[in-house]
Amino acid sequence: MGKKLRIGIIGVGGMGSGHAMGIHSGTGNTIWSTQIDYVPPFPGEMTSNLPDYLELAGVYDINPARNEWAINHGISVFENYDAMLADPTVDAILIATPNHLHKDMAISAMRAGKHVLCEKPVMISSADMLDVMAVSKETGKVFYPRQNREWDEDYLIVKKIYDEKLIGNVFNIKCRIMGSRGIPGDWRGVKEYGGGMMLDWGVHIIDRIVKMIPEKITNLFCHFTYITNPECDDGFQLHLTFANGVTVNLEVGTCHFVNEPLWCVYGDKGSAMINNWNLDGKLVRLISWDDKDTMPILAGAGLTKTMAPRDGGESVEEFELPRFDFDRNALYRNFVETCNGEAEQIVSQEHALRVLRIMEACFESSETGKAIAFEA
Amino acid sequence: MGKKLRIGIIGVGGMGSGHAMGIHSGTGNTIWSTQIDYVPPFPGEMTSNLPDYLELAGVYDINPARNEWAINHGISVFENYDAMLADPTVDAILIATPNHLHKDMAISAMRAGKHVLCEKPVMISSADMLDVMAVSKETGKVFYPRQNREWDEDYLIVKKIYDEKLIGNVFNIKCRIMGSRGIPGDWRGVKEYGGGMMLDWGVHIIDRIVKMIPEKITNLFCHFTYITNPECDDGFQLHLTFANGVTVNLEVGTCHFVNEPLWCVYGDKGSAMINNWNLDGKLVRLISWDDKDTMPILAGAGLTKTMAPRDGGESVEEFELPRFDFDRNALYRNFVETCNGEAEQIVSQEHALRVLRIMEACFESSETGKAIAFEA
């Protein structure tokens, strides 16, 4: 690998502090935060050794308490953002400020000759993204969207099932992210700061699904909820139809005191389910479609054979979900390799732009009540 | 109660045989069928005694084997449908033939002076329904849609939660009926006979939900599947927005080898879930919204407090689902009382017409890919 990159972090809130400790500790594990002081290294053997290619130059936050937290953890603190940008030993900036600040900070950084790794949602609008992409092109500096959840194991399981047709041709996929605590605190509840759950979790689950299914989206219908916050969406239900006929239901909720399965995947030869973040679940594959003999079950006032489960029958086979080891620092690594001209961006600017446009179509759909023939 | 009604049944297939044995045995339990010979009486004390108000005059089917089955079970068989209609001791006809035959048979029956109890979907189209309603008005004969699932216990549980605000104001309801055996056999897989799952299960779950939520539907988006049958819908996903802001997701699937929860109900003060037909489930009520202190959980590559479950916390309270005893013969009874001029139809013609129109809007939505501002 080429040059080891020195990175400065602007913003030391939830994500910024995670990055700071992840890089400072050398594990890359960003689940550190200002509220948690110890996080074990990643399990598995595939994770690349972060200190080989990335080191922390320092951080800065407008909140003095957060800078103090950094100092107490042995992390250098810059005097301000300008000082970080002016430091010639800083190769790159990681932006972890509220969403509405990303654009100006990214442009300043690239104009100061720094590469940029930018927290998601990278921009509040696709128009802003186009401006930032223009500056990236003009300056020759990398602008890298930190949309990191295509390396989540739950997604990798679903992607394997989809790609390898483990349950035949998939026709419907559901992914649901459900909590019961409303929108996370402070600026995420404020519209002008880029708050709301679509920009928070929506970006991730849309990002991944449109990467998994390469076809265009032909139709999109979205409904937002405003149960716990009248200003910012605290959840949504999104229906996507792809050009290959596959439909996807994405849902985020923050007023949900019971949990539906995290993922459901339906194919013409079976189904798979991931129940929760622990990745409990199963894959059920059909052996014989014609073996329909079963005792009907009582379903309310009626008897149903159609809806009777196949439990205990010999017409289906049940499997454990496939599991993975993988490089959990893959995004950091690809960022560094991209900056060094050694690799293509795995999370491309064009991809992030498409995700922003899909999210804009979601808002349009929810506000108008109409389905959007998005890329048809 | 007034006059005891004598009823003839036309069609001795899955539902016709159930009705025949339910009435013949006096239990009213229609889960009998030509494949099952003994069904216990309903549990509970609330169920009215069917023999007090309804008796079976006889049955008829164009399939001789089914008439033979009836005779073997001590049930009278008419020579044909005309003979049934011509019998002056027959007060009412129960129509349990394939869906495309309902209209002509219902009109013939009413013109012959018989009341009609008609299996669902009562008609294939709202236009047919208007014709039948006109004949009902003209002849003064009852035409009663046998949309019987508003007396299902799972629905009664959800209705109680909704009506009594047991989890605060409900904002979203999901009901999913999932099987793995495709569309049930014979005519239900043929479009011109009124096949497909929307007309089979859709009618029930739409029927109930629009009865529970009295407001108009302002928006409707529906997507059908044709996985196991290219001609008839073998499932669908339906989004409804009501004028009070409540959204409902109804789903039927017949290529689903894992089961999502049967019902999920989300309110601003809690959630409820019915997992399956055994009515396993729970109701979770929020005690303190502000008590958000919790340890974050690991969710893929990131840490989330927002999506961390409240398990074991003291900020929520968990309850068993409310259960009910009720008159499981309520529809038969109301039909008889209506024929005797003693009651209003609980399942009115106008209601069935509305359900048919909603289903037509579903087909329009799925075919065009558009949302329908249905009754807005």
Automatic annotation (TrEMBL), chains A, B:
What positions does the domain GFO/IDH/MocA-like oxidoreductase occupy? Answer: 157-272
Gene3D superfamilies, per database record: Dihydrodipicolinate Reductase, domain 2, NAD(P)-binding Rossmann-like Domain
Instruction: Give start and end of each Gfo/Idh/MocA-like oxidoreductase N-terminal domain.
Output: 5-144
One Pfam family it belongs to: GFO_IDH_MocA_C3
> SUPFAM superfamilies annotated for this entry?
Glyceraldehyde-3-phosphate dehydrogenase-like, C-terminal domain, NAD(P)-binding Rossmann-fold domains
User: This chain belongs to which protein, by name?
Assistant: Gfo/Idh/MocA family oxidoreductase
Which species?
Answer: Anaeromassilibacillus senegalensis
